[in-house]
Design brief:
single chain, 5 helices, about 0% strand
Length: about 110
């Protein structure tokens, strides 16, 4: 099962492997990771724009490409969390609180 904890472990491993090339995960790198995340979100948007919802749902090649780009988004998202030493338990707590707020908003 893929959890935020496992994703962060995997990202730490990847970032450690390429630390000299990518600069590691200090707080100063978060801005750069956020810019890369925006780029990946743009790629996700391009797939939606060019292929449309139906192909994402029914065409296995388009769907795989879409999921790959979403994975890139998640990888940069986790890098940003790691830059600020945000633990999965912290994310879970605040996410659940935010969900409750949203559920009772209207």
């Amino acid at each position: 099962r893929l959890t935020f904890e496992l994703m962060q472990t995997m990202q730490k491993e990847l970032q450690e492997k390429y630390k000299e090339k990518w600069g590691g995960l200090p707080p100063e790198q978060a801005r750069q990771k956020l810019l890369w995340l925006y780029g990946e979100l743009g790629e996700v948007g391009d797939i939606i724009k060019k292929s449309g919802d139906e192909k994402i749902l029914s065409d296995s090649n388009v769907r795989t490409h879409f999921i790959e780009e979403m994975c890139d988004v998640m990888m940069y998202f986790n890098d940003i969390l790691l830059c600020y030493d945000i633990q999965p338990t912290e994310l879970e707590k605040v996410y659940l609180e935010k969900h409750q707020q949203n559920m009772s908003r209207w």
